[in-house]
Each structure stands twice: as structure tokens, then as C-alpha cells.
Design brief:
Distance between the termini of chain A: 15 Å
Structural class of chain A: alpha+beta
CATH architecture of the largest domain in chain A: 3-Layer(aba) Sandwich
Strand content of chain A: 25-35%
Order of helices and strands of chain A: EEEHEEEHHHEHEHEEHHEEEEEEEEEE
CATH architecture of chain B: Orthogonal Bundle
Oligomer: heterodimer
Number of strands of chain A: 20
CATH class of chain B: Mainly Alpha
Helix content of chain A: 10-25%
Number of strands of chain B: 0
Strand order of the largest sheet of chain A: 6-7-8-3-9-10
Radius of gyration of chain A: 24 Å
CATH class of the largest domain in chain A: Alpha Beta
Distance between the termini of chain B: 29 Å
Shape of chain B: globular
CATH topology of chain B: MetI-like fold
Chain lengths: ~350, ~270
């Protein structure tokens, strides 16, 4: 995970006057599992298509392994794509699908047969050579699409929401499968998804995008525990985003009550946004809490209970293994380490700052 | 359920009286002689030199017309399927516009255009170019057929191409195919169902036409359709006309059978 394999610099792209990507900068390291994460229309798929060569940026450069490939057609690029709806060739058998790229490159019959066997073994579909793609389930088609891409030994595999059409159980299984394949192949994966859980499970690096801008780049832990702005905090998992005032270093005033925290360097009496994850809110006896509230909603979620607690005119979202019935008076406590302080956006535009990696 | 079935009544009446009964009559007339006895004579008449020649020419011209239509229609359908909606609806309009006119009128227009002293030759004379003299030849008939039937080739091909998953094309490019390879290995095979229905919709009417050959062939070029028409109208021989019609029907069905079989081999059974 050392040198930059793909380097996108100042990429802009607009469709009919609507800007999709604005001066995007991003690099992808060798052997990295990088996920582009964001809501629909954030520009993540366009970014992937620009790397794949299916779109040409209006301005900016795509550098691959030290070479400018901005205007190189897809068939000349050393990467392969797994498409969202699989895009298998329905007039060919599974084996012919997998062999497609190799036949184009005039590989020998023996080499192609070996590769088909190897790829089908990798995706756990041995013996499916002569089946028609249309006779396979969604999950199996997805695996064939992956097999078809990886037999070409690409340096990078691009995956465009490959699990989007699968049901929950299968999706979770495929997440582990993909991690396993990635390890076995030892190549770079660039993965596009709008599913934050998928991103957290599989990635080495997550790139959170919104409205054509990169919001934050970091490891899954960093993105989850230390979101850089309210958008990231809100998009990655549930969170309480509260208005607060940084009284001084390590002391923040939230909804009129003073909490200890670990953040420094925000100055004195600075308005800030405070993120507290629902599982980090501790419910205690009323007299032990920093602030008091009343439980207003209770839902059993399986592993935990989800509650809403109204305290100081704010609905706190709380996840807890303990159950407090609706109407219970509780105290709210948060350990300093679990309070995440963020600068308030200065203007609307600021909400989408372009952050360098 | 019963009430719904009643809704099919008008069509049932229509098809029985105008499709099933006439078909039955053709078979009946075709297999009987003037005095009412069973005979295969009418069908055997196809083997007379004139009739064989007409049938052969019909097959040949229909084949030529289909090939030319395919060569013209495919690129056009591709352009249409790739252009934006506003552009393509304009092209489609220009293209469909002549279809709104009766095809007899359009064929008559070609007659006027192609005449010895017709518009085309007058223009050519003005430019001091040699006159073209194709009226009353098979060339004029093929031209008229292509002009009349081309839309029936374009539309089905356009329909498959416009529904073709663009990511399938992208996938082929992604796997290293250049644009020619992508066309030959992906786009063309994927559009076979459209080509098949286009061929069906052009070949069958071209094979059986007698009006186009009448107007642009000037009675000098006889197709099997003209032979049958003359047998009915001038010879007033319904038995022979029906017999020849049966032969023509068999040829049409056989041609379609060959085309569909080929299609099954290619795509694993789209029909």
C-alpha cells in the first residue's frame, strides 16, 4: 500500500449545465480497497466511469501508473469493471462470457480454459461453464461478472454498486466473498456504494462524497468516529448532531449544560456542531446525569433498544442494551472521549468543502 | 370470465369470416378442378416454365430487396438509437412522413419520376448526363419495393437497439474489444431478433407483391403475384389461381421457417 496507482487531479464534469464533479482531487494507492460512498447524485458513479474510461472529464487529468490516460478508450486501459446490473452477454454461455476478454487478446485455447476454471473456482461457481447467464440467480450473475473481469488480470477492479440488486443476506455473504477475493488477487479495488455499512465492512479507505465534492477521506474507523462535518456524521450511521458552544479547550456547552470533551484548539466561546453517536449516550439515574430528560419512544431492535429521550428541547437518539419504558425520567451522560466537535459550516457552500486527501 | 370472453366476439367474427373461411376456400379451390373433382393439377402447374420463372424472379427480387433494406436500415437504426430523443423524433418524423401516404400513390410517384421523359431524366438531361432507363425493368421494381418496405425493416431493428443495455457495450469495451469487435460480437448478435422480424416484414410482402411490379414493371416483368392476379382476373380461373396461391404460401412459410431456425441457432431461441 505504498505508491499512488491512480491519481485524479482537478476533475470536473457537467451534464447539460449541471455540475456533477467540481475540481475533484483523489489518489488511489496500489492494493487498496477504496470505496466511494455517498447519496445518489453525489458524483461517485461518474468518478468511477471516468476512471473506467466511459466518460471523459470536461477538465482535469487521470493519471494511471504514471501515465496520462484521460483520453484513452476503455479497451486500452489496464483495469476492468463490474457493472451494477452485471451486463453479462446474454447470447453467450458463462464460459464464453468469461473468455471474452481473453479471446480478444488472442490467448491460447489452453490458457483460456485454465483461466475459466480458475475464475469459476475463485467465485465458487465451478461447473457452471455451459450455463446461460439468464438461467442464473442475481448473486450468481454477479459472481460471473466478477470472474469475467478478473481473468484479464487487471491492476484495478472497478465495482459499481455490485451488490445493489441483491437481498440483505446474500449481500452480507458477498461482502465477505469480495474481501476474500481481494486478498487472493492482491489487486486494487475501487468500489462505489451508497450503503454505509457495506463501505465500513469492506474498505481500507472510504471517500465520502456529496454534491460533487469529497467530504472526507479516511479509514472506516476514522470516518465513523471522527466525522469532519455534519454531512459525514449524518450519512455514516445514526447520530445526534447538536448545536454547541466551545467554552474553552476540553469544555463544551451543549443545550445549556456543560460537558467535558477531549477537543482543543477551537478558541473560546466558539459556536460548533457536536456529534454524539446514539450508542455513546449513557442513560443513568436522573440525579447522576449531566442533563435530565424523559423517554418518549422505545423500539426493540434485536441487539439493542432504540429510544428517543427529550431533554432540553432536543430529541436524543439513544441505543442501549438496557430498556427504559416510555415516560421514565432519566439522566444523560456522555464520556468526554465520545463527544466529537466539528466546526460549524460558515455558509451553505462550506457544507461541501473540497478536502484534499 | 365469461363476460370478458364476449369481448373477443367481434374479432372472432371478423377472423372467421375474413381469414379462416377465405383460407379454407383457397384450399378448396386449389385442390379441385372446374367440375368439382379432387385434383393436384392446379398445384402442379407451378412447374410450367413461365410460372417457375415468375416464382424464381419473385424470390430473387424479394431477396435483393431484403438485403438492400437491411443494409440501409441498420446504420439508420443505429444512428436513431444513439441520438437524443428530440433529435431522433425529428428524424423519425421525416422518415415516417411518407408512410402516411398510401403506398399506391408513392409507387405511382416513382413511375412518374422514372419514366423515359420523367422528372429524373429531365434533370439529368439538363446536367448533360446520360439518361437512366430502368422503368419497366426488375431494377425499378426493386427500387419501388425498397422504398415502400424500408420502414418495416428500420423500426424493429431500432426497437432492439434502443433497448440494448448500454453497459453491455461498455463491458465489451472494458474487456478490450475495439468498436468494430464490439459491434460484431455484441451489438449485432444482440439485435438478431429485430433483424429477423425486419426480414419477415420485408421479405413476405416483397415476395407476394403484384402492384409494384405492375406499376414499375409495366406488365413486362411478371412476378408470381402478377401471374396469380392474372389467372384470377383475366383467366377467371379460380381453381388454378388458388392452387398457385397455395404454392406461394408454402414458399413463404418455408422461408420464414429457415429464418427462424437460423435465429434459434444464434440466440438460443428468441422465438
Amino acid at each position: 500500500m505504498s505508491n499512488k496507482l491512480i491519481d485524479l487531479s482537478n476533475i470536473s464534469k457537467a451534464y447539460g449545465g449541471h455540475t456533477v464533479l467540481d475540481e475533484l482531487n483523489l489518489y488511489i494507492r496500489e492494493n487498496e480497497f477504496l470505496t466511494l460512498l455517498g447519496p445518489s447524485g453525489c458524483g461517485k458513479t461518474t468518478t468511477l466511469r471516468i476512471i473506467g474510461g466511459f466518460e471523459t472529464p470536461d477538465s482535469g487529468q487521470v493519471i494511471f501508473d504514471g501515465q496520462d490516460i484521460t483520453h484513452l478508450p476503455p479497451n486500452k486501459r489496464q483495469l476492468n469493471t463490474v457493472f451494477q446490473k452485471y451486463a453479462l452477454f446474454s447470447h453467450m454461455s458463462v464460459a464464453e462470457n468469461i473468455a471474452f476478454g481473453l479471446k480478444i487478446k488472442n490467448k491460447s485455447r489452453q490458457y483460456i480454459d485454465d483461466k475459466i476454471k480458475y475464475a469459476l473456482k475463485l467465485v465458487n461457481l465451478e461447473g457452471y461453464e455451459n450455463r446461460s447467464p439468464e438461467s442464473l440467480s442475481g448473486g450468481q450473475q454477479q459472481r460471473i461478472a466478477i470472474a469475467r473481469a478478473i481473468v484479464n488480470e487487471p491492476k484495478v477492479l472497478l465495482l459499481d454498486e455490485p451488490l445493489g440488486a441483491l437481498d440483505l443476506k446474500l449481500r452480507q455473504d458477498m461482502q465477505y466473498e469480495l474481501i476474500r477475493m481481494k486478498k487472493e488477487l492482491g489487486i486494487t479495488f475501487v468500489y462505489v456504494t451508497h450503503d454505509q455499512e457495506e463501505a465500513l465492512t469492506m474498505s481500507d479507505t472510504i471517500v465520502v462524497m456529496n454534491q460533487g465534492y469529497i467530504q472526507q477521506i479516511g479509514t472506516p474507523e476514522k470516518i465513523y468516529n471522527e466525522p469532519e462535518n455534519a454531512f459525514v456524521a449524518d450519512f455514516i450511521g445514526d447520530s445526534n448532531i447538536l448545536p454547541g458552544i466551545m467554552v474553552e479547550d476540553r469544555l463544551v456547552n451543549i443545550l445549556g449544560a456543560t460537558f467535558q470533551c477531549v477537543d482543543e484548539g477551537f478558541g473560546k466561546n466558539t459556536p460548533v456542531d457536536v456529534v454524539i453517536r446514539p450508542e455513546d449516550v449513557d442513560l443513568v439515574k436522573p440525579e447522576d446525569g449531566t442533563i435530565r430528560g424523559v423517554v418518549t419512544h422505545l423500539i426493540f431492535k434485536g441487539v439493542h433498544y432504540e429510544m428517543e429521550v427529550t431533554a432540553n428541547n432536543y430529541e436524543w437518539l439513544v441505543h442501549s442494551y438496557e430498556m427504559f419504558p416510555v415516560g421514565t425520567e432519566v439522566g444523560i451522560r456522555v464520556v468526554p472521549f465520545d463527544i466529537q466537535i466539528m466546526n460549524k459550516p460558515i455558509s451553505e457552500d462550506e457544507e461541501a468543502v473540497n478536502l484534499e486527501a | 370470465m365469461k363476460r370478458r370472453r364476449l369481448l373477443a366476439g367481434p374479432y372472432l367474427f371478423w377472423s372467421v369470416s375474413f381469414i379462416i373461411i377465405p383460407l379454407f376456400l383457397i384450399v378448396w379451390y386449389g385442390l379441385t378442378s372446374a367440375d368439382g373433382g379432387f385434383t393436384l393439377q392446379n398445384i402442379a402447374k407451378i412447374t410450367t416454365p413461365e410460372n417457375l420463372k415468375a416464382l424464381g424472379l419473385s424470390l430473387l427480387l424479394a431477396f435483393l430487396c431484403t438485403v438492400i433494406c437491411l443494409l440501409l436500415a441498420y446504420p439508420l437504426a443505429m444512428i436513431l438509437s444513439q441520438s437524443s430523443l428530440s433529435q431522433s423524433s425529428f428524424i423519425v418524423l421525416i422518415f415516417i412522413l411518407p408512410m402516411w401516404m398510401n403506398f399506391l400513390l408513392r409507387t405511382l410517384a416513382w413511375q412518374t419520376l422514372l419514366e423515359k421523359n420523367g422528372v429524373i431524366n429531365q434533370v439529368l438531361a439538363l446536367l448533360h448526363l446520360p439518361a437512366i432507363d430502368i422503368i419497366n425493368t426488375p431494377y425499378a421494381i426493386v427500387l419501388g419495393m425498397v422504398y415502400d418496405f424500408l420502414p418495416f425493416m428500420v423500426l424493429p431493428i431500432y426497437n432492439v437497439l434502443v433497448k440494448l443495455d448500454q453497459d453491455m457495450v461498455n463491458a465489451a469495451r472494458d474487456l478490450g474489444a475495439n468498436s468494430v469487435q464490439t459491434f460484431l460480437k455484441i451489438i449485432l448478435p444482440q439485435s438478431v431478433p429485430g433483424i429477423i422480424s425486419g426480414i419477415t416484414m420485408v421479405f413476405v410482402p416483397a415476395m407476394t407483391t403484384f402492384v409494384i411490379s405492375d406499376l414499375l414493371g409495366g406488365g413486362k416483368v411478371l412476378l408470381i403475384g402478377n401471374v396469380i392476379e392474372q389467372t384470377f382476373k383475366q383467366g377467371n380461373n379460380w381453381n388454378l389461381g388458388s392452387g398457385l396461391s397455395l404454392v406461394l404460401m408454402v414458399f413463404v412459410i418455408a422461408s420464414m421457417g429457415i429464418v427462424n431456425k437460423y435465429d434459434k441457432d444464434e440466440t438460443g431461441g428468441a422465438f
